[in-house]
Design goal:
The chain has 13 helices and 14 strands. A hairpin with a 2-residue loop joins strand 2 and strand 3.
Length: 379
């Protein structure tokens, strides 16, 4: 019979940590976001991190690391940066997700990009993504040729831009950086990008900024913050940062110096990174589920992920379902335009709620998002 124990990451035993790592490795993803050390890092900057440990007579049967929010609501560990997550279970465990949540005392959980091991979406969920990745299977030369064969014009253009950049500004270098100034510069570029596009600034909450620095400073454990920089003539013109473990790099932040935009420095960084994966200590470059156009040029592997809200059985879930149905019906009465606007606002609010832990932060974020969407709709 399956039982559940909920603990803080600090209470994790060495045996449970090892069993957790084995469950994560069994997915074949080798993702730092599924590693116990990632949960431990997040717990250093947030006090709502919990780990549900599922056990039976054979030992550890499953793990779910999450943020426990008011009302028994759960979000995956590191939300809104957890763009790949899972309830990890042994292959012989066949419990519905709703039942696993009930055992952990969770009323409902939001999964933006959950891995289940299946292409078909579980009941109540829908496909999202897929997550796109570059995997080094043999040599960098073979990898580049594999990608170039799919997109010859793009790779010809990348080589042309790289030559022009070198001719205009000097030698180009791709490297793993330990320079904190470069990390701060990247975060500044990214926040400026959020302001320019009107997207919510997920780096504004103190815990989010602290998490970046905590991972960057990590000197223990297997998950560390990895900062990749593209420099020309000794000057950083583009960078990416995110967690790395076992040779898998999952960047969260990617930005570049706008003054260098004619050279497409962001694309050149990925191009150079792929060519230099062995030197950078990487075997897998995970790009996540976003629909950014550049990803298709560098992808040779995809992972099916799913999105949705799962509710454990109970009265609270029935009330929540009724409220959602009422909201949907009200939006439908306004026609397709109102329905579309309501959907966009709902998604924006969910992202804001996932990263803003203070009432003030949520209020400011939601007000700004609603204003932007309404102004845009009126044009």
């Amino acid at each position: 019979m399956l039982q559940c124990e909920t603990i803080s990451p600090a209470a994790l035993t060495a045996a449970d940590r090892d069993a957790w790592i084995s469950l994560a490795q069994a997915t074949g993803l080798a993702s730092p976001l599924l590693h116990p050390d990632f949960a431990i890092a997040v717990a250093k900057v947030r006090d709502d991190v919990r780990v549900a440990l599922y056990r039976d007579r054979k030992g550890l049967a499953g793990v779910f690391a999450y943020h426990r929010r008011p009302g028994g609501f759960a979000r995956p560990i590191g939300a809104a940066f957890s763009d790949l997550h899972a309830i990890l279970t042994r292959p012989d465990i066949d419990q519905p997700v709703a039942e696993l949540l009930r055992l952990a005392g969770i009323s409902r959980a939001r999964f933006p990009a959950v891995y289940t091991g299946n292409a078909a979406s579980p009941e109540g969920m829908e496909p999202v993504g897929p997550s796109q990745a570059t995997i080094l299977r043999s040599t960098p030369e073979a990898l580049i040729e594999e990608l170039r064969a799919e997109h010859p014009k793009k790779f010809k253009d990348l080589r042309r831009r790289l030559r022009r950049l070198e001719e205009d500004h000097g030698p180009v270098e791709i490297a793993v950086s330990t320079d904190r100034v470069a990390l701060v510069q990247l975060m500044s570029w990214k926040r400026a990008q959020f302001r320019a596009t009107g997207k919510h600034d997920v780096l504004a909450p103190q815990w989010a900024s602290d998490l970046m620095h905590t991972l960057f400073d990590a000197d223990a454990g297997e998950v560390k913050g990895c900062l990749i920089t593209l420099s020309v003539g000794g000057r950083v013109i583009a960078a990416e940062f995110g967690p790395e473990a076992h040779g898998t790099f999952h960047p969260w932040l990617a930005a570049y110096d706008e003054a260098m935009s004619p050279y497409s420095p962001g694309h050149l960084l990925v191009y150079q990174l792929i060519e230099a994966m062995p030197q950078l200590g990487l075997a897998r470059y995970e790009m996540g589920t976003g629909h950014e156009d550049y990803k298709k040029y560098f992808t040779n592997h995809t992972t099916h992920l799913h999105s949705g809200m799962v509710r454990s059985p109970g009265f609270a879930s029935i009330l929540r379902d009724g409220a959602v149905a009422t909201f949907d019906a009200a939006a439908a009465l306004g026609g397709e335009r109102v329905r579309s606007l309501a959907g966009k606002l709902h998604r924006r609010i969910d992202q804001i709620a996932s990263v803003e832990v203070s009432t003030a932060g949520r209020f400011i974020g939601v007000t700004r998002a609603a204003t932007q969407l309404l102004v845009g709709a009126g044009r």
